[in-house]
Amino acid sequence: MSLRERSGRIMVESRLMGFGAVIKGRIDADSDVALVRRAREGDYEAFEQLFERYRALVYRFAYQMTSRRDDAEDVAQEAFVRAYQNLHRYRDEAKFTTWILRIVTNLCTDQMRMTTRRTALEQQEAAGALDWMTLGDVEDPVANLEGDRRKAVLRTALNALPVHHRTMIVLRDLEEREYPEISAILGCTVGGAKLRVLRARRALRERLEPFFGEGSQ
Amino acid sequence: MNRKQEEELIQQMFSESTESESSQVDKLKSADAHTQVMAQQYKQMREDLKLTREVPADQLSKERLREAILKAGLSASGPANRQKWVWPGWIPSLTASACAVVGVYFVFSHSEVNPSPTSPSQEIVSKLAKQAELPVASRFADPSAHPLKFEASLGGSIEKPINPAIVATAVPKADIGASYGFQAKKLKSVRRPWSHTPGPTLTSAVANVDVLYGAMSLSFPGAALSTISTRNGDLFSRSGLNRNASGGPLAAQFKAGAPSVSELPADAPSKTIVLINDGSSAASDANQATEVESSRNVLVGG
C-alpha cells in the first residue's frame, strides 16, 4: 500500500469515527439518563419526552394490575407525577423503566389495598359492560365468544389473586420482564424473584382449576 | 407429585427449564397421568395469559400530566426548585447555647458584691453626710471602731460590716417599688421606730429587711448585702447572694432632719433623684427630701 493510499484510508477511517461519535453523541443526548439529567435541571420538555417514551409501558402495566382503564390511567399519571417530584432520588445506574415500574408497582399495591372492599359483582358488571367497546374480532364471532370467555375467566382469577402474586404474573408472564429486572423492581434477589413467580403461577392455576374443563367439553 | 416436581413442571411449561430438568419432567409426565393433566392446565393458562395482554387505548396526554404535576405542587417539590443548600440545623442550637452562656455570665457578674471601698456609692454617701453633718459612711469601714453599730437591735448578730454600696433612707415602703418601677414581693407591715438617734444606724435597716429582700430579689442594681441575720432567718440564704463576699454592708439612714434640697449647693448636678423623707420641715411643713445623683448606689430602707 502506497503512502497516498494509506493516507486516504486513514482519512476515511477518521471520518467514519467522527460520524460514529456524532451518532453516539445523539444517542447519549437522547438517553434516559440524559433526559433525566435535563429534567432534573428544570427542562420540563425532557421529562415530557420521557413521558411519551414510557407512558404506554406504564399504562399497560397499570391496566394489567387494576383491570380498569380509568384506574390504570390514574395510576400511570400519578406515577409520572411522583417520578417528576422525585427525580433527584433517581440514581443513574438503574434503568429508568425499572425505577418507574417500581413506582407503579407501589401505587398499584396501595390502590388495590384500598379497593379490596369493592364487590366482585361490581367489577364484573363494569368489565362486561365495556367489553364490546374494546375487545373482540368481528371476523370470527364464535372464536370471539370463546376467547372472551377465557379472558374473562382468567381476568377474574387474576383479580382474585393477592397483590403480590398478581404483580409477579403481570411482570413476568404479561410484561415478560427478565428476572434481574423483576428483582430490581421488587428489591429482591433473582432467586427470590423466580421463587415468587413459581408460587404465583401455582396460585393462579389453583384459581383456574374449576374452569379448565369447560372449554374442552 | 411433590412441590419441587411441580415447580420443575411449571418451569418447563413456561420454557424456563434446562434440558436436564426438562427430561426429568418428561419422564414424570409419562409415568403419572395427574402430572399430564397438570401440565395441560399450565399450558392452557399460559395461552390465556397471552390473550390478556391486549389493553384498551389510554387517554393520557401531556396536558393532563402537566395539570396533575401543577396540582400536586410543582413549586414545592419539583426538581427544578429543589433547594441545593441545606439549612444547617446546628445554628439555632448554637445560638441558643451562646445566649444561655451570655445570660449566665451577665447574671453572675451583676450579682457579685462590689468590694471596692472607693465605690461611687461611698463618695455619694460621704458627700451627703458631709453636707448634712452626719457621720460619714467610711467611718464604719472598721467594724472594731463601732462595734455597737453592727449589733442588730433585734438581737441578731452581724458577721460582717455592711457594704457601703447600700444606703438606707427613710422612705415609706410604698414608695420603694414605685421609685424603681416594681413592687416588692413581700411588703409586710413593718413597725418603724420613729425615735432614731441622729446619724446612721442599723436598727431600722434590720427592721426593714423584708423590704430590702423584696428589692434585692428583683436584682436591684448595686444592691449588695453580704450577710445579716434577723429574727426572720437568714436573709441572704433566701436571696441567694454570696455569703462570703468581701466587704460588708453599710446602712445609713437619713433621719427626719436631714438636709433638704434647698440646702444643697447651687452647683449641684441637674440630673438628680429626690428621695422624699417621712419627716416634715418645721418651716414649710412639707416633707423633707434628699437629693442624690444616681439611684444605682441607693438602697431604700427604714
As an assembly, this protein is heterodimer
Major sheet of chain A = none
C-alpha-based Rg of chain B, rounded: 46 Å
CA distance, first residue to last residue of chain B: 109 Å
Radius of gyration of chain A: 23 Å
Shape of chain B: rod-shaped
For the sheet with most strands of chain B, the description reads: 2 strands, antiparallel
Give the structural class of chain B. Answer: mainly alpha
Determine the number of helices of chain B (DSSP H or I, runs of at least 4 residues).
10
Strand content of chain B: 5-15%
Q: Trace the largest sheet of chain B across and list its strands.
A: 1-2
Span between termini of chain A: 78 Å
Order of helices and strands of chain B: HHHHHHHHHEEHEE
Shape descriptor of chain A: globular
What class do helices, strands and sheet pairing of chain A give? mainly alpha
Beta strand count of chain B = 4
Q: Give the overall average pLDDT of chain A.
A: 80
Please summarize what this structure is:
The complex is a heterodimer of chains A (217) and B (302). With 217 residues, chain A is mostly helical.
Description:
The complex is a heterodimer of chains A (217) and B (302). In chain A, helix 3 (44-66) packs antiparallel against helix 4 (69-85) and helix 9 (179-186) packs across helix 10. The longest helix of chain A has 28 residues, at 3-30. Chain A contains eleven helices and no strands. The radius of gyration of chain A is 23 Å and the shape is globular. Chain A has 217 residues and is an all-alpha fold. Chain B has 302 residues and is mainly α. In chain B, the strands form two sheets. Chain B has a two-stranded antiparallel ribbon. In chain B, helix 1 packs across helix 2. The longest helix of chain B has 22 residues, at 90-111. In chain B, 30% of the residues are buried. The model of chain B is unreliable at 136-141, 145-159, 164-174 and 200-262 (pLDDT under 50).
